[in-house]
Design a protein that fits this description.
about 100 residues, alpha+beta, seven-stranded antiparallel beta sheet, 2 helices, about 20% helix
Length: about 100
């Protein structure tokens, strides 16, 4: 599992309308450590939530920095794609804006 990969997530309880795609945004050192039970991910939604805190991840939808969460590895069941370097740059800009970090 690597930063920028998109995975299908199977929640314990499915919620209608909630995305099952997650974009991995944690550092690869964390992602490669199999003893760490979680990685950081963003929801990928089908529609644009609007604002500066989201980035288009073609062809999957929109990743929102506001949806950052700890994702249980064992619930990531299938690799569904990988974001391009340009898409990950847009995600990094959104995350930096959310936390007020310089870019």
């Amino acid at each position: 599992m690597l930063r920028g990969e998109i995975w299908i997530y199977r929640p314990v309880l499915e919620r209608p309308g909630q995305s099952t795609l997650r974009l991995i945004v944690s550092a690869d050192g964390i992602n490669r450590d199999e003893t760490t039970p979680t990685v950081r991910g963003l929801h990928i939604n089908a529609t644009d939530p609007g604002g500066l805190l989201s980035a288009r991840i073609d062809p999957h939808g929109w990743a929102s920095a506001m949806s950052s969460e700890a994702v249980m590895r064992r619930r990531l069941v299938e690799h569904a794609g990988t974001a391009t370097p340009e898409q990950m740059e847009a995600v990094e800009v959104a995350i930096a804006a959310m936390y007020g970090l310089p870019r």
